[in-house]
Amino acid sequence: MRGWVLKADERSALDIRRLGVAYEEMDTKFRLLMEGFGALHRRIDELEQRMDEKFTEIDYKFDIVFERLDKIDAALAKKLDRDEFLAFCRARI
Question: How far apart are CA 11 and CA 4, in angstroms?
Answer without folding.
Answer: 11
